Amino acid sequence: MDDAPIRGRGESQIFQQFLARYDVPAYVRRARQVQDELDYLVARCRQKRDEWLVLVRIRVGQLQALAGDWSRLGPWLADADQVRVLHELHALLSPRLRLPLGPTSSGRALRRALREVSESIQRFNQRWREFIPTVDLSRVNEARDGYNRYYLLEKECAVRSARLARQGFRRLEPMTTDELAALLPPLPVPRMRA
Questions:
Q1: Domain segments of the chain: what residues?
Q2: What are phi and psi of 77, to 5 degrees?
Q3: Model-level pTM?
Q4: Could you write out the DSSP letters of every residue in 10-45?
Q5: Which residues of 74-110 are buried (b: 16+ CB within 10 A; e: fewer)?
Q6: How far apart are CA 91 and CA 26, in angstroms?
Q7: Sign for the pseudo-dihedral over CA of 173, 176, 178, 180
């Protein structure tokens, strides 16, 4: 059996420089893993969300094209603040119609398009609220648990100081569906006049 050589002080510095240049300490990898798992989960949810928003996106684009100016929808909106809601929806969804659609002077067409937008958003929101509790949070929570258990130990080994290792450390609570819903909330629904 070969004896493992004991590194001297100079060799330790070379080893540390090698690690600094080619790899990061374990505690940094652990923190990155937590963020990577969260990013992956949110990206998967955003992909699903985008799939389900196709019809809403089309309806918002059609409404904007038919109205030409959001303020034209004032007679059918519950209050003036709803124009802001429509602006925000349009900015959030960035709809692009395949075929150009010009403004209409028909109040009936505008009211119908506004109602279709509202109904589409309500259907999407219902579907989204049902989806969020089914998302598997186990990988994110396993990464957070590993972070809580080993981050301080790994950092203390790297910096060789328990006090320095504790600086800025914050335990991560298990992710909940409420936290995920806050990251990817339902869409605001423009309220129509009764």
A1: 24-183
A2: -95, 150
A3: 0.81
A4: HHHHHHHHHHHHH---HHHHHHHHHHHHHHHHHHHH
A5: eebbeeeebbebbeebbeebebeeeeeeeeeeeeeeb
A6: 41
A7: positive
Please report, in tens digits, the pLDDT of each residue of the chain (194 residues total): 444 444 445 556 666 665 555 578 889 999 999 999 999 999 999 999 999 999 999 999 999 999 999 999 999 999 999 999 999 999 999 999 998 889 999 999 999 999 999 999 999 999 999 999 999 999 999 999 999 999 999 999 999 999 999 999 999 999 999 999 999 999 999 999 98
Report the C-alpha gap between 89 and 16 in whole angstroms. 51
Q: Which tokens in the block code for residue 156?
A: 């203390």
Closest C-alpha to 67, from 100, 118, 120, 109: 109
Rounded Cα gap, residues 36 and 28, in angstroms: 12
